Amino acid sequence: MIQPKNKVPSLQVDLINGTKWELAKQDPKNFTLLIFYRGLHCPVCKSYLEKLTTLLDDYSERGVNVLALSMDTEKRAKISAEKWDIETLPLAYGISEATAREWGLYISEAIKDAEPDVFSEPGLFLIKKDGSLYCSSIQTMPFARPDLEKFLKSIDFVLEESYPARGTK
């Protein structure tokens, strides 16, 4: 489990647009927001990422860079990008099981034909400019994710009040 105020694991991923993304090279005004999603097979992920896409400008206005990522293959991630309404959302693929575990994500095995053999459950990580964890939300199921609009309001509060990271004891 990654503790708030501690450095998060290094992360280098491939994006569906053919570029590479590296957490250490990010320079957000305030935070980097990582949204780990289950994959193409997940209708809850589809809705969640489509909602996130409608809020990208709001996150950007608050100095938050956003990335969605999964253990899906490049092919599956590109299908998600084509079939879901997420064309402006940076989308990474090919996260290894070891990387998912390093981030503290729960791992599931397929129970339906449409699911990959192994995939991670959702996780949200808000990372400070210095690479330390500010807060996280890790789920064991697709259903219990933070509301993205309310999360924006939380970021406003954090920035206005200089609210410290909690859960550090």
Topology:
Elements lengths: L11 E4 L4 E3 L8 E6 L6 H12 L1 H6 L2 E6 L4 H10 L7 E3 L3 H6 L4 E3 L8 E3 L2 E6 L4 E6 L9 H14 L8
Parallel strand pairs: 3-4, 4-5
Antiparallel strand pairs: 1-2, 1-5, 3-8, 6-7, 8-9
- N-to-C series of helices and strands: EEEHHEHEHEEEEH
CATH architectural grouping: 3-Layer(aba) Sandwich
Structural class, by secondary structure, is: alpha+beta
**Main sheet properties:** 7 strands, mixed
What is the name of the CATH class? Alpha Beta
CATH-defined superfamily: Glutaredoxin
Note the overall shape.
globular
Mean pLDDT: 97
How many strand elements? 9
Rounded to an integer, what's the Rg over CA atoms? 15 Å
How many domains make up the 3D coordinates? 1
Strand proportion: 15-25%
User: Strands of the biggest beta sheet: in what spatial order?
Assistant: 2-1-5-4-3-8-9
For the termini, the CA-CA separation is 13 Å
Q: What is the helix tally?
A: 5
Uncertain segments of ≥5 residues (pLDDT<50)?
Answer: none
The third-level CATH topology is: Glutaredoxin
The share of residues in helices is 25-40%
InterPro entries: AhpC/TSA, Thioredoxin-like_sf, Thioredoxin_domain
Pfam families: AhpC-TSA
Protein name: Alkyl hydroperoxide reductase
Domain Thioredoxin: 2-160
